[in-house]
Design goal:
Blueprint: E1 3-9, E2 20-26, E3 34-43, H1 46-52, E4 69-76, E5 88-91, E6 94-96, H2 102-105, E7 116-117, E8 129-133, E9 138-139, H3 146-149, H4 155-165, E10 175-179, H5 183-194, E11 198-202, H6 206-214, E12 219-221, E13 231-236, H7 241-249, E14 251-259, E15 280-283, H8 289-301, E16 308-312, H9 316-324, E17 331-335
Parallel strand pairs: 10-11, 10-13, 11-12, 13-14, 14-15, 16-17
Antiparallel strand pairs: 1-2, 3-4, 3-8, 3-17, 4-5, 5-9, 6-7
The structure holds zinc ion (2 copies).
């Protein structure tokens, strides 16, 4: 067959109008250095919603979104080892980086000037097949099932990069604050605790506070509340500038605040006192291949628990609608085959 079923975007529009259409689409063919992946499932990310609703400009139309892909390699192009056939792999947001710009050369391919992004600059995972470059796919460790592995590829991996940037991994002991406790944070708390960190969680939702405690948080309360200790580092997942200020107030001397969101409302008033004594702020953008691979290995090792709601591919609009309106438990994942 030379076509595949996909949920395709032709015009950016509010998700309330269910803008993705379930149609036949040209099946891609693996070129040199590429593999053809039969998609088993694809996670639904808030970024997909931003693309569909026009908060991000389109670079390609028609477009298949989706960048948390789990699938099996079915065919290979030239210059690809036969050992790749039947391998179970993941494809994240970073579809390709150039390897030649100053960022790539510095090990910062997440900032590559020429990068391509899955489900944005090239077609993504709301479909039955995708082609990908052999160097930019990630073997999924045994012990992670398809549905639960999908959300690891975006929210999980970006959260892991944020955790690395706190510089608390590998220290003897450390106090880490997590501000906001959604999909990404509920994965990262498990990694942080496995590294021996004490984790304090700040969220207004009582339900999420309870969830955090059940996963091993030492303390969970609202972002304005005082945990009674100073934090060595904090990660802000909430897209609100005022939360970043609250997090800074709780940092110890030399502490680092990591901002993990791709969007945040303005940080309006920042007293210099909050930065004084070598406190610092760092944002996180995208992930490197190394981040993804390290995180997948750690996730398998600690048997990370993710909460997932599955939808058939045809119901992608509904999944995105439920995500937008907070009707989801955990992460939404589309089951393709
Ligand atoms: Zn994403
Ligand atoms: Zn580059």
């Amino acid at each position: 067959m030379n076509w595949l079923k996909a949920m395709v975007l032709h015009n950016q529009a509010s998700i309330e109008s269910f803008p993705l259409t379930y149609i036949d689409f040209d099946k891609p063919f693996p070129q040199r250095n590429e593999v053809l992946v039969r998609i088993k499932c694809c996670g639904v990310c808030r970024t997909d919603l931003h693309i569909i609703e026009g908060e991000l400009p389109t670079v390609k139309i028609p477009l298949i979104v989706g960048h948390q892909i789990i699938g099996v390699i079915e065919d290979i192009g030239d210059n690809v080892d036969h050992g790749f056939i039947n391998m179970r792999v993941g494809i994240p947001w970073l579809y390709w980086s150039c390897g030649e710009c100053k960022y790539c050369k510095a090990g910062l391919e997440n900032l590559c000037d020429n990068a391509l992004f899955t489900g944005y600059s090239v077609d993504g995972g709301y479909a039955e097949y995708i082609v990908a470059h052999k160097d930019f796919i990630h073997k999924i460790p045994v012990g992670l099932d398809d549905l639960h592995a999908a959300p690891l590829l975006c929210g999980g991996a970006i959260g892991y990069r944020a955790l690395k940037l706190t510089r608390l991994l590998g220290v003897e002991e450390g106090k880490l604050g997590l501000f906001g406790f959604g999909s990404s944070a509920h994965m990262i708390i498990q990694v942080a605790i496995s590294h021996g960190l004490d984790v304090y969680v700040f969220t207004r939702s009582k339900l999420r506070q309870e969830h955090a405690i059940s996963l091993g948080a030492i303390w969970a309360s609202g972002p304005m509340d005082d945990p009674g200790v100073k934090l060595d580092a904090a990660i802000v997942f909430a897209p609100a500038g005022w939360v970043a200020v609250e997090a800074l107030k709780k940092l110890d001397k030399g502490g680092r605040l990591v901002l993990a969101g791709i969007y945040m409302s303005p940080i309006e008033k920042l007293d210099y006192d909050l930065l004084w004594l070598e406190r610092e702020i760092k944002s996180v953008a995208n992930v490197t291949r190394r981040d993804v691979r390290e995180f997948l290995d750690e996730a398998a090792k600690i048997r990370i628990k993710t909460t997932v709601t599955a939808y058939p591919l045809k119901d992608a609009n509904k999944a995105l609608y439920d995500l937008k309106h907070g009707k989801l438990k955990g992460s939404a994942v589309l089951k393709v085959s």
